[in-house]
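Sample pair:
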Amino acid sequence: VDQVNRGGPHIVSGSDHGSLLAYLNLRAGKKAMDMSDFASALAFFDHGILFLDENHWHDNYNLSLELFDNAVKCTYAIGDHQRLNKFSEQVLSFARSFNDKLTVIYHAVSALCDASSLDEAIEKGVWVLSMLGEDLFQPSSRSET
């Protein structure tokens, strides 16, 4: 995969080949993550994203989601919060369900905590819990003793 990545997405003809190379980059990135080589894994996920066609969220939703989710995990692991936000925006804009957004939201909230933006992290965390049906500010039904 690394050899093809050096050539870049412009050497690929047809979306089927691009999708295949995106998938191969996903597999290579996962193997790099298994070895805790997050910088290399991110490079593979980044290349995989580049090989996706313009309508990838429609044509290859699961592949797109998996590439972007893993890119977010890697950017968090290496502390690149700027790129984490870039990848997160894509998932938050195009994910089909709230559950598909959870991994990205988790890492975004964790990055806020790392950056000492605790008020914003708490606000997002409370919002996520409310979306999951948990109301933290509802009065307790137990009597206080």
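The chain has a mean pLDDT of 87.
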